[in-house]
Amino acid sequence: MTRDELADLDGRDELYRRLKAYEGRTASSGGKGRDPVNEPMIRHWCEAMGDTNPAYPGIAPPTMLQAWTMAGLTGRPGGSARSNAYLELLALLDRAGCASVVATDCEQEYLRPLRPGDQVVFDAVIESVSPRKTTKLGTGYFVTTRMNVRTGDGELVGTHRFRILKYAPARPKRDPVPGREPTSEREPTSERDPVPGREAMSEREPVRERGAMSEREPVRERGAKADQRPRRPRPVINRDNAGFWEGVTRHQLLIQRCLDCAAPRFPWLPGCGRCGSARWEAVEASGVGTVFSYVVMHHPPFPAFDPPYAVGLIELAEGVRMVSGITGVPYDKVRIGMPVELEFQRVDEDLELPVFRGTDEEAVV
């Protein structure tokens, strides 16, 4: 089935009618967790997440719900293979040209805490298939499955909704080449398209330092290629984190502090993870911290970035951690425990970001 046929079928609702017929059918059944709920996994989870709730490991954190059902590197847990109905649904979408897939979001509902010794069993159902949608990735259908998680005696302890987009990729728009007529956007072919911006040479980014706010002018490539450099991805700003980004525009790094238990928190959330209070205030962080962990990015390449570069998990003096770029230090000189200080980096005419500059004299460029 070609993409034109997909459009024709969808226009008559025929394809969508066939997809909707799978709603309510089994996606998987008979799944069993590889291990009973246990204290070592709970402790490892809490350490990784920085969760010091005294209730753990007597009970499992609710957000571990999916962890007890996951297969690991060796394959799916026994009995939890995808059903024929789910495989048929995916195959139908593949034949219709929607062969690409991306996970979009999940929702969890918790009915009672899991405790060490509980044996988890689970099954899943195809809950819904959306009408045809057009996104920046391409055109396709959102498929939602709902997993019901139970204990061995059949008690329902939680649900996990998982949503994917099966889509036909859109062809990226190319920047016009001077002197050449622009071409219209078309559907993707089997040939590899060039990565947008790969031809663009690297550009040193302007840095606005905290305090004196001195600026270093960017060194730009001459000619048309310099103007083709893709922009950085835009931050997702919503009602929960809008205050943080407003602070960035004022060159302030704002974190939250609970007004009931005084616990600091970051990233911004509507409620306190320690006491559950919804009362909080915004406070300006000092901007002083250390590298708690880091990774050096080599692959995959992103057109707006020049690998290799270091991305750090920064532990602030106030006790919270945040992910940020590390500047002023060669990527191979970044070390755990290295002291860093906040600065604001203008990455283009519309976007300025908080980053952290290494202050270790032996590592600084």
TrEMBL record:
InterPro entries with a match to the protein in the record: ChsH2_C (IPR002878), ChsH2_Znr (IPR022002), FAS1-like_DH_region (IPR039569), HotDog_dom_sf (IPR029069), NA-bd_OB-fold (IPR012340), Thioester_dehydratase-like (IPR052513)
Biological source species: Streptomyces demainii
Ranges for region Disordered: 167-239
Domain (ChsH2 C-terminal OB-fold) ranges: 283-345
Designated name of the protein: OB-fold protein
Compositional bias annotation for Basic and acidic residues: 172-230
Domain FAS1-like dehydratase: 31-158
Database matches in Gene3D superfamilies: Hotdog Thioesterase (3.10.129.10)
Chain segments annotated as transmembrane: none
Residue ranges occupied by any ChsH2 rubredoxin-like zinc ribbon domain in the UniProt entry: 245-281
